[in-house]
Amino acid sequence: MLAFGIFVATLVLVIWQPRGLGIGWSALGGAGVALLLGVVDWGDVGTVWHIVWDATFTFVALIIISLILDEAGFFAWAALHIARWGNGRGRLLFPLIILLGAMIAAIFANDGAALLLTPIVVAILARLDFRPGAALAFIIATGFVADSTSLPLIISNLVNIVSANYFDIGFSRYALVMVPVDLVALLATLLVLGWYFRREVPGRYDVERLESPADAIRDHQVFRAAFPLLLALLAALFLTTHWELPFALIMGSAALILMAIAGRWFSAGHVHVISLKSVLRHAPWQIVLFSLGMYLVVYGLGNAWLTDAAAEVLVWLSRQGDLVATVGTGFASAILASLMNNMPATLIGALAIDQAEVSQQTQQLMVYANVIGNDLGPKLTPIGSLATLLWLHVLAGKGYRIGWGQYMKVGLVITPPVLLATLVALAVWLPALPMP
User: Fold this and answer.
1) Residue 150 CB coordination number (10 Å)
2) Burial zone of 219 (CB within 10 Å; 0-12 exposed, 13-18 middle, 19+ buried)
3) What is the CA radius of gyration of the chain?
4) Running DSSP on this structure, what letter comes out for residue 244?
5) CA distances for 41 relative to 35, 38, 45, 373, angstroms
6) How far is CA 163 from CA 190, 199, 256, 364, 381, in A?
7) In this structure, which of 27, 144, 206, 254 has its CB flanked by the most CB atoms within 10 Å?
8) Which of 12-16, 107-111, 355-359, 431-435 has the lowest mean pLDDT?
9) pLDDT digits 0-9 by tens, 283-323
10) How far is the C-alpha of 212 from the C-alpha of 286, rounded, in Å?
């Protein structure tokens, strides 16, 4: 109960953020209390840091890349092209926006897709003068697809990175398993969102109201470097899959290259457009403290009783067959993530899977099901992920206030069918592959 009390108090502070208290400081405070009271010890600090450091700094580097490209106008350029490809037809624009969100989530992670694309979509909707119901449909779709399709690559979600590192899954192997599964998730997302908002999406819109995509580009040097750099980054991740290089090293190198281009480090006399100082100031440095602190608190909770209890549930599920084990693990992870945030839930799931005595194939299914559950599960409640809370804050700043009740009314309807379809796809696809 002591470990559980510390966890609840820490989570409340992380969500509430009294007087602007950073999420990292709240998590570190909880970890400090756990250390003082003996819930965790100093040896656990090293264990947890070993689990989270690569994922955390990879995520920071990825967000820095995203922020620089956003400042250069890269995402606005892409969104305006998509809006023009809709050719004035709202029912074509809706799936195109979802597809754009899926592509951005795959490369720039779910946080990048939700937090950077959403303000751009909001601005486009305002330019097109969409009514509130129609605007809400596009906004919800943008936020939902950011998580529901953040499965295909290890870098697509912080959850993916933590899980892949914990179970030593290479970049290529992960993509081999999850890219087809993600395509099913994307198809299910398109169908479910299209059905749910079928009455809200407008039939027509005026393309002439939109500015030219070229006008959105603010830094042409960064923009021209974007596609070659992203292709080189993906190639490096695939080619070094057996070298056991930290993802943070590869992603950090890409971030430094883009910073050099944006800051004109090697172009004397050239005035830079993008303020790297501002980019670095807005980078998610608090996530470094949050990852270590929150994971320590959760590690103590797991040591107390939660890991053992979760492992027993997984063993029972494994006896019901691989399909039930996959779907059950995914939904259990999703529910846990929706109640206690997906980052703590990811660690609890990984520890429990590692502890559960199940066959190798069942364990593999559970590992990926845990990822799927923690990627999609946060859409059930606003507290499921920090990205969702930040997304709601960004929307409020733009004049779109979505209450928790309204959010959950949508999330509880559209999340379960997408989650189920994705987990069934995993249960069918992974056994057809050779074991690693």
Assistant:
1) 33
2) buried
3) 21
4) T
5) 6, 6, 7, 30
6) 27, 39, 26, 11, 22
7) 27
8) 12-16
9) 777 777 887 888 788 878 777 677 888 899 999 999 999 99
10) 37
What does DSSP assign to residue 151? Answer: -
Return mean pLDDT, the chain: 87
From start to end of 133-265, where are the E strands?
none
The pair of structure tokens assigned to 12 is: 């409340």
Q: How far apart are CA 52 and CA 59, in angstroms?
A: 11
The distance from CA 411 to its chain's CA centroid, rounded to whole angstroms, is 16
400-413 in b/e burial notation, b at 16+ Cβ within 10 A? bebeeeebbebbee
Instruction: Enumerate residues 6+ apart whose C-beta is below 8 A from 193.
Output: 94, 98, 137, 140, 141, 144, 145, 414
Which tokens belong to 193? 């969102």
Both tokens of residue 63? Answer: 């967000």
Report the C-alpha gap between 191 and 428 in whole angstroms.
Answer: 20
Give the distance from CA 415 to its chain's centroid. Answer: 15
Distance CA 267, CA 296 (A): 45
Report, in this order, helix, strand and coil percent for the chain, each rounded to 5. Answer: 80, 0, 20
Start-to-end Cα distance in the chain: 40
Best CA proximity match to 389, nearest among 60, 121, 17: 17
H or E element, residue 218: none
Residue 423 confidence (pLDDT): 97
State the amino acid at position 343 in one-letter form. Answer: M
The tokens describing 314, both together, are 């997984």
Q: CA distances (Å), 105 to each of 108, 113, 187, 259, 299, in order?
A: 5, 5, 15, 21, 29
Higher pLDDT, 22 or 145: 145
Report how far residue 154's alpha carbon sits from residue 175's, in angstroms, rounded to the nearest whole number: 7
Task: Give Cβ neighbours of residue 314 (< 8 Å, ≥ 6 apart).
Answer: 325, 329, 352, 353, 356, 358, 366
User: For residues 291 and 60, is the Cβ–Cβ distance under 8 A?
Assistant: no
221 alpha-carbon distance from chain centroid: 28
Q: Are 72 and 223 in contact (CB under 8 A)?
A: yes
Residue 274: CB atoms within 10 Å: 23
Q: Which two tokens stand for residue 227?
A: 């596609």
Range with the poorest average pLDDT among 81-85, 100-104, 294-298, 311-315: 294-298
Query: Contact, 251 vs 112, CB < 8 A?
Result: no
